[in-house]
Amino acid sequence: MRPEDVLRAINEARGDALVVPTMTAVPAWRTIAPDAPSVACVGFMGGASSLGLGLALAQPERRVIVLDGDGSLLMQLGSLATVAGAAPSNYTHVLFANGVYQTSGSQAIPGASAIDFAGMAEAAGYAFTTHIDTLEELRIRLPELLSVRGPVLVELAVEEAELTPMTAPGGDPLRVQVQRLRKRLGHEG
Amino acid sequence: MPENERIPAPLIVEALKEAFRSQRTAPPRDGEPLGWLLSVPDTHQKSVIAELEGDGELRLLTCSTEDEANAIAAGLYIGGAEVALMIQHAGLYASVNTLRGVGLDGGVPIFALVGLLSREPELDPADSPRSMVRFAGPLMDTFDVPHALLETRTDLGLIPEYYALSRERSGPAVVFVGRETD
Lengths: 189, 182
Hints:
The structure holds two protein chains of two kinds.
Chain A: H1 3-13, E1 18-21, H2 25-32, H3 48-58, E2 64-69, H4 70-75, H5 79-86, E3 91-97, E4 100-101, E5 107-108, H6 117-124, E6 128-132, H7 135-145, E7 152-157, H8 174-184
Parallel strand pairs in A: 1-2, 2-3, 3-7, 6-7
Antiparallel strand pairs in A: 4-5
Chain B: H1 9-23, E1 35-39, H2 46-53, E2 58-62, H3 66-78, E3 83-88, H4 89-94, H5 96-105, E4 111-115, H6 131-134, H7 136-142, E5 147-150, H8 158-169, E6 173-177
Parallel strand pairs in B: 1-2, 1-3, 3-4, 4-6, 5-6
Helix pairs in contact in B: 1-2, 1-8, 3-5
């Protein structure tokens, strides 16, 4: 699957969900869904799953979608246990598994060919996990993945992205994104 | 209570509640906690953590790492919740990049109670032979993070004061817990 096609499909299905993209999902999401209620994680090494968890706990009536990477998740793998322990029913963790650290030059992640992230999430205690290999199947199953009781982890077999935060820098600084999303959620200052 | 006695955990919990209440613009909705405590367990604060487990107003979430705690705090803050971290000094060192990214670049008011395990009561932390104790304050100075030392009952006001300071500055503020709580 092309990650850009995946993001377009998610944008069409997301409803009023809050979205937390990280690394290679960031530039494309910025273009595909410029008005989505999002906050991007770049530069704090695997923090998207945790930032999304905090959002899900604070906003239990909104779906939260984390657009994570396999390399990023490996940097904070314990977050699978923390998410499972907190058990947010409104949390959908979309894992883009391309097997490489694309942003830094596409070096292979450790154990790239053998890791079963959905299996890890299930073993950690996620309520629902699955693998999806085709865009067609993803489109069909997205409504379920964004409504079933979470936490959900869906592992997607994807190609490398067209852009990375290194080849396509830009977007608003994190501080601006934080305040904009807070304001959008009704919290000034 | 003599000044050198350990601080009872319920007093710290009350100080945290005061800090949260002072920043809330509305009372909690049904089922919503007054605030969240994100903990990676700390020896100095273990009695507080135990006290929180039975508290009906606050919600305690144990995290796998301090990096997670910082990022979860950011999400809670964006979502409108009150939140504080309870970690140890080793975890502060371990998570300093996330503190930088979230707290400084992101302008997220991360407030943390940080246990100074093995701090010698007769020494100023800056004079400790233990690097873990000695460098904690200077590390925060490097990042321009205000910090204070909580050791006795008379210091309890530091908790709401530094919590409010983190909000005013839109950035991190730290209260070091210099001795084990009771």
